[in-house]
Amino acid sequence: MNKIISGSLAPAEKAQGKKELFARLIGGGWIFLLLLALIATFSFLRPEQFGSAYNLSQLAINAAILLVLSVGQTWVIVAAGIDLSVGAVLVFSSVVSAQVMLALTGASGTTFGTTDAGWGIIAIGSLVAVFAGALWGLVNGVLVAVARIPALIVTLGTFGMALGLAQIFSGGVDVRAMPERLVEVLGSGDLAGVPLLVIVAIIVVAVAAFVLHLTRFGLHTFALGSNLEALRRAGINVRIRLIAIYMISGALAGVAAVMSNARFSTTTISGHAMDNLATISAVVLGGTSLFGGIGSVAGTVIGVFIPIILLNGFVILGIPPFWQTVAMGAVLILAVWIDQLKRRARERS
């Protein structure tokens, strides 16, 4: 009997072992290998166009705003939450910031072109954007942590509220006048050949990675996603931590709003409707688990560049950009499947 049982279980155990090994081998680094493969492929097929300094600079600039948003989303998902409001919060913050700067320069909200606002006004407008984003994060955090409403519902609701209020405040018309200094310096300027927008994104990534991975607050963030009850029994104020995490996500959306205003020299009310899904995709592609407790800012950086390089490469090769959506959908499903494999392997071990 024992031989029959052992003989019948051996193949199943062996198959399960192979699945766990597969998950461990590719779970952490496969998306980085995919990124390298994409870069190598497009560089080989179109070396002059794809590998040019101008194209690489544009790739980095295109990634900068999405990367700042995705860093905030990383914090939320690591804590086993979700934030669908980031794109709308960006729009709201950009509109409020632009209108404050116009009001301080004495111009109307529909003025076209640039204004001569000084750095003091620009600083005030930037702080307003960050504060507005953090305020929406506070609303999200309180409703999730205190009212205990599911994060999916809360952030979907604030997505509509933030976008609707932005349209009400602006009359549904983009503010098309930004301070000339903001546009020329932050939007188009560079430092030692590196665009300032990219430098801002690098600073955000560095600070966020340090706090998330090397501080007690970061440790508590991972604990929120992996073992909430243990954190609570350790005497940690779970509600305050969760509220702070959503405020970080909102504040970073405010930072992204300033970057967006500087780059495009206008608010973009209709241009960020899909940012929530784009950030979630980037975070998941980067190896952060949708179930919380596992993730990294470095992985998110890699996840952000996958769709951007795909789209850029498809355009250079003359492939319709619609195929980028198809490819990204397939890669995202693969990422979630691998995440589930890793999770099952951890549960069995």
Order of secondary-structure elements: HHHHHEHHEHEEHHHHHHH
Strand content: under 5%
**Outline:** globular
The largest pleated sheet is described as: 2 strands, parallel
Share of helical residues: over 70%
Adjacency order of strands in the biggest sheet? 1-2
Number of strands: 4
Q: Cα distance, first to last residue?
A: 27 Å
Unreliable runs, pLDDT <50, ≥5 residues?
1-9, 20-27
Number of helices: 15
Helix/strand-derived category reads mainly alpha
Cα Rg: 22 Å
Care to give the gist of this entry?
The chain has 349 residues and is mainly alpha-helical.
Keyphrases for this structure?
77% helix; single chain; mainly alpha; 3% strand; 349 residues; 4 strands; 15 helices
Describe the structure.
The protein has 349 residues and is mostly helical. The protein has helices at 2-27, 30-45, 47-50, 53-78, 86-105, 119-145, 151-170, 180-187, 196-214, 216-226, 228-233, 238-264, 275-285, 297-317, 322-348; strands spanning 113-115, 177-179, 190-191, 194-195. The strands form 2 sheets. It has a two-stranded parallel sheet. The model is unreliable at 1-9 and 20-27 (pLDDT under 50).
